[in-house]
Amino acid sequence: MSVLPVLSCEGCGKCCQHMGFPPFMYFEILDLPIELKQPLLEIYDNKQVLEEAGQNCIWLKDNQCIHYKYRPQICRDFKLGSEACVKYRNS
After folding, report:
1. Phi, psi of 38 (to 5 degrees)
2. Inter-residue contact 50 to 43 (CB < 8 Å)
3. Cα–Cα distance measured from residue 78 to residue 45, given in angstroms and rounded to the nearest whole number
4. Which of 10, 61, 66, 85 is the most buried (most CB within 10 A)?
5. Which pTM was predicted?
6. What pLDDT is recorded for position 54?
């Protein structure tokens, strides 16, 4: 059985489910616009609780990142159709 190639992220969001908090390095948060930075800094010390709870990323709404332009570098580096992408989609 062949697997069809993954052509779009639209409407998927599988890679962002169960992470709780956007996977920022702390220094990345500091470069965000104040309206995005402040809410993240307010809950940063509790991010592990969000991550361990297995909830969707707080930036994931309707299976899309609501702040896609400002997403963390690790999200930018995540490749559509990669082995990890396919694994998330099939889980």
Report:
1. -55, -50
2. yes
3. 25
4. 85
5. 0.84
6. 84
